[in-house]
Structures are given as structure tokens and as C-alpha cells.
Design goal:
Strand order of the largest sheet: 1-2-3-5-4
Radius of gyration: 24 Å
Organism: Neogobius melanostomus
Protein name: Scaffold protein ILK
Number of strands: 8
GO molecular function, one term: ATP binding
Helix content: 25-40%
Order of helices and strands: HHHHHHHHHHHEEEEEHHEEHHHHHHE
Shape: globular
GO cellular component, one term: cell cortex
Distance between the termini: 39 Å
Strand content: 5-15%
Family: Belongs to the protein kinase superfamily. TKL Ser/Thr protein kinase family.
Structural class: alpha+beta
């Protein structure tokens, strides 16, 4: 069977979907030239494959070895619909490749007039110089040069030339495809790990160290003083021996968990648009998890189990599902747990419905930027939710459409809560409205929100395999 890059290049949607359904596969890996699956799908104009990859969590601004983003490739080949999709998903319209060319440079050079207009309308600068001092207007034919110049002036762009600036060593602006080998290893030689520094240690006597392996930035989770019977094999674990203790490794995610981003003083500001984007990512991931039979045991959704990738995509962490030393039956984050899950045995509850309650609490957390029931201990929270009807209070000033969605997802009757594949289209429309208008359109939102009588439309998967940030271990 051809590899994923060939399938994306040829637009084989069935094969791509099957490949994506295998959670061991990393859709952000690169081929020998650093092209990700999204690069190839955008280059060849495979719109349905692009939709699938984006929904599953493909990095929008990933760069190949020549620093081209998917937007560069879609623009140069004139795939206007794909350019629009990428822009909606916050593609950088002014990303420069190794030659300093932006997507607009390519659209102008190849005579993709409509694409060039769309790029300028969405913030592409007509005066950015490449390495050779050429602007997109210098690359355009006379009629397009005049048209874009007039449009840029009307939009208030500064028409003075912007000199080329090499940002290669800035570090934060470049997102490379991952090396696929990290996801394919059944066991890793401990001696190959270059460990740098301990980050954190918990009362369960496990600690983490940053490091590198085969050029990848990683986090290492080390388990000490565990019973031999607990030394379960793990898909990405180091075998012991030669490791002194069982360990698991994963890609480093610099933003850590959603809890870190919202509550622990990171520099990233989660505005209303980004909050809806995070909610959509999480809903897509949960929609995928809910297609699995049997369901994954001991997985509880909360902001500490949602990790934020470097391109600000929210991904559901499975770090403590397959390889966990938490006490069975104990609720570690009861603030996010449904009342019935605190009152009944696990086998007596509907897991899918209780996950929807947890999502509602997470949505409340996203829009309020507060920790639910922060003034109470975990024991008090669990007891009051289960026995005294403790519920979060929705403050004034929150979007009424988000409030309505939150209340439906938090219905006291588990049977009346929606499924994740039903709310994904609602959140997707909310996100589009934010991206297009800057604020939610009241009329459009009313037409599209909370219409839960329609049939399900499954879109899946923002999932990560294992641990992403030490503070949440």
C-alpha cells in the first residue's frame, strides 16, 4: 500500500481516513523533504482530504524544508477554495519561506489573480520584500499589480517597501513536521536519550526530564519504585533494561495543558475566538473517542487532560489511560465530573453523557477563565456536586449562544445531553462567524446554534497519545 503522502497527493480520501483512524499514526509527520500530508493535499488541490486533515488536527502553518507552508503551495497552484479554508483556520498569510517569498509572491508570479486578491483581503502585505528585494507587486503582471495596489491602499496598508528580515533563529515562528519515527517505535534504547533537566516530581515518586531523541524535543516520564506487576509494556516506552526504571516519552508541547494556559500565567491570551477554537478541537477529539468500542477506560475529560500544541491546537492527552498508577475509583478532578458519575458505579453510568457534562464545565472554564469551584477542596467539591446540587454559575456578559450550548450540554438528565458529533457543526459555525466578523453574528448564530434535532455528522480526532506537560502528571 502506498504511504500517506502518496494517498494525500492522489486524493484517496478512503485510504487517508483509514490511516487517520489508526491513532498510532502522526498526521503531522514529514516526508524526506519535510512535506506533511497537508502540504501534499494543498499542493494537489485535494479539498476533501484537506478538510479531513484539518479536522483531525493538522498543523496549518507547518513548514517543509524550504520553509513553504501549505498556504504557499495552495496559492501557487491556484486552489482558491483551499486557500480560503487555510485562511479561516488562521494560516499566516505573510509567512516567508527560505527565499523570503510569501504566498502572495507565488500567487502573483503564477498569475493566480483571484487567490492574490483573497490573500490581500485577508491581510497579506503587498510590500514585503523577499531576499532579493522583490515585493509581490514586482512579481505581478501590470493589471494585477494595479488591482492589488489599489486594494491594499483602500485597506490602509503602508505601501513603502518592507525589507526582508531573516527570522530563522527566532525559533517560535517556525513549525516543522515531526519525524515520524517517534510514533513508530515499540521500544527505545535508553542510551539514545539525551536528558537535560528535571522539570517536576510528584508525590507518586515519578519525575520528568526534558531532552532530545533523534532530533525531537521530548518529555521523559520516569516511574520509580513500582511493583514488578505494574511494569506494563507501553507503545512508546523505554524497555527496562537497559533503562534503570520504566519510562515513557512523548513530544514536548511548550504551552503545556489548557489548565496551564488559562490559569497559570502564560503569555498567551485566550480571547473569545480562541476559546471557541479550543472547544471545537476538544469536541472533535471526543467525537472520535466516542466512536471506539469498547470505550477507553479511566479517561476523564478536564482542562488538565487537554494539551496545547505549539500551533495552538487543543489535543486530548491519553497519558494516564494505558499506563497509569492512579488509584482505581478515585476522582482526582471532581469539579469536571458529572453528578451521576460521582453518585454511581462506573458500570452504571452512560460514559458518553457524563463526558458531555465534563465538556460543559470545560466550556464554562474557557469563557470565564476561572477554575471551577476554586475555593473548595476536591473532597468538598465531589460531595457538594453529588449530594447538594452544587453547579457553576454563569456570569453576565457571556455570549448567549455559548450559554445556551453550555446549558444543553449540562442537562441534569443525562439522556437529554447531546452527542459530540452533534455539537461539532455548531462550534464550527461559531468559529467561522468569529473569524469572518471578529465577533459573533447574532442572526447567524441564532439560525445555526443548538439545533440538535438534525442527524449526527461525525468529525473526529484531536488526540495525543501520552504525556505532554509535567505539571499534570
Amino acid at each position: 500500500m502506498d504511504d500517506i503522502f502518496t494517498q494525500c497527493r492522489e486524493g484517496n480520501a478512503v485510504a487517508v481516513r483509514l490511516w487517520l483512524d489508526n491513532t498510532e499514526n502522526d498526521l503531522n509527520q514529514g516526508d524526506d523533504h519535510g512535506f506533511s500530508p497537508l502540504h501534499w493535499a494543498c499542493r494537489e488541490g485535494r479539498s476533501n482530504v484537506v478538510d479531513m486533515l484539518i479536522m483531525r488536527g493538522a498543523r496549518i502553518n507547518v513548514m517543509n524544508r524550504g520553509d513553504d507552508t501549505p498556504l504557499h503551495l495552495a496559492a501557487s497552484h491556484g486552489h482558491r477554495d483551499i486557500v480560503g479554508k487555510l485562511i479561516q483556520c488562521k494560516a499566516d498569510t505573510n509567512a516567508a519561506n527560505e527565499h523570503g517569498n510569501t504566498p502572495l509572491h507565488y500567487a502573483c508570479f503564477w498569475g493566480q489573480d483571484q487567490v492574490a486578491e483573497d490573500l490581500v483581503t485577508n491581510g497579506a502585505q503587498v510590500s514585503i520584500c523577499n531576499k532579493y528585494g522583490e515585493t509581490p507587486l514586482d512579481k505581478a503582471k501590470p493589471h494585477l499589480r494595479e488591482l492589488l495596489g489599489e486594494k491594499a491602499e483602500k485597506l490602509g496598508q503602508n505601501m513603502a517597501k518592507i525589507p526582508f528580515k531573516d527570522t530563522f533563529w527566532k525559533g517560535t515562528t517556525r513549525t516543522r513536521p515531526r519525524n515520524g519515527t517517534l510514533n513508530k517505535q515499540a521500544g527505545v534504547d535508553y542510551k539514545q536519550l539525551s536528558l537535560v533537566a528535571k522539570i517536576n516530581e510528584t508525590n507518586l515518586e515519578r519525575y520528568l526530564r526534558t531532552g532530545r531523541w533523534q532530533g525531537n524535543e521530548i518529555v521523559v516520564k520516569v516511574f520509580k519504585d513500582i511493583l514488578p506487576s505494574q511494569r506494563a509494556a507501553h507503545a512508546r516506552g523505554c524497555q527496562s533494561p537497559p533503562a534503570p526504571h520504566p519510562i515513557i516519552i512523548t513530544h514536548w508541547m511548550p504551552y503545556g495543558s489548557l489548565y496551564n494556559v488559562l490559569h497559570e500565567g502564560t503569555n498567551f491570551v485566550v480571547d473569545q475566538t480562541q476559546a471557541v477554537k479550543f472547544a471545537l478541537d476538544i469536541a472533535c477529539g471526543m467525537a472520535f473517542l466516542h466512536t471506539l468500542e469498547p470505550m477507553i477506560p479511566r479517561h476523564y475529560l478536564n482542562s488538565k487532560s487537554v494539551m496545547i500544541d505549539e500551533d495552538m491546537t487543543a489535543r486530548i492527552s491519553m497519558s494516564d489511560v494505558k499506563f497509569s498508577f492512579q488509584c482505581p475509583g478515585r476522582m482526582y478532578s471532581p469539579a469536571w465530573v458529572a453528578p451521576e458519575a460521582l453518585q454511581k458505579k462506573p458500570e452504571d453510568i452512560n460514559r458518553r453523557s457524563s463526558d458531555m457534562w465534563s465538556f460543559a464545565i470545560l466550556l464554562w472554564e474557557l469563557v470565564t477563565r476561572e477554575v471551577p469551584f476554586a475555593d473548595l477542596s476536591n473532597m468538598e467539591i465531589g460531595m457538594k456536586i453529588a449530594l447538594e446540587g452544587l453547579r457553576p454559575t454563569i456570569p453576565p456578559g457571556i455570549s448567549p449562544h455559548i450559554c445556551k450550548l453550555m446549558k444543553i450540554c449540562m442537562n441534569e438528565d443525562p439522556a437529554k445531553r447531546p452527542k459530540f458529533d452533534m455539537i461539532v457543526p455548531i462550534l464550527d459555525k461559531m468559529q467561522q462567524n468569529f473569524l469572518e466578523a471578529g465577533i459573533m453574528s447574532e442572526t447567524t448564530a441564532l439560525r445555526t446554534s443548538i439545533s440538535l434535532q438534525t442527524g449526527p455528522s461525525l468529525k473526529s480526532g484531536h488526540i495525543v497519545g501520552i504525556l505532554r506537560k509535567p505539571k499534570d502528571s
